[in-house]
């Protein structure tokens, strides 16, 4: 094993047959199952691998905002993000775009929203994807 991987996170992936796979997070033991999507020879029974990538973006944005809020002593309440994934229809099959509808609680003031919008742009998943996938963040705040 190369020394560069000693401090890395290991995820063990295994093919289960019939277009199903398993990914096991070594540090926690958590397991995620995938299936090929219905439009690509699968049953769509579980997340497709590209769904996991879309989910990674949504949960990364929520997590990085939570980290910033924790460091500042802010209560965020319930933030919700709907991620919409659009695949290409021509050429190699890949993710064309990801749109995130981000719903912020009404109790968060505009100054905090400004900070959180800025920090969301620093999401590591977003930074890794934005040169190859169109990403849109659409912000919404519930009004009292």
Topology:
Elements (H helix, E strand, L loop, with lengths): L10 E7 L2 E6 L5 E5 L13 H24 L7 E8 L7 E10 L5 H11 L3 H6 L4 E8 L3
Helix pairs in contact: 1-2
Short description:
The chain has 144 residues and is an alpha+beta fold. It is 28% helix and 31% strand.
Distance between the termini: 56 Å
Low-confidence stretches: none
CATH architecture of the largest domain: 2-Layer Sandwich
Instruction: Please work out how many helical segments DSSP would assign.
Output: 3
Helical content band: 25-40%
CATH H-level superfamily title of the largest domain: K homology (KH) domain
Report strand %. 25-35%
**Largest sheet report:** 3 strands, antiparallel
Gyration radius, in Å: 18 Å
Mean pLDDT: 93
- DSSP, total strands: 6
Spatial arrangement of strands, main beta sheet: 1-2-3
- Approximate shape: globular
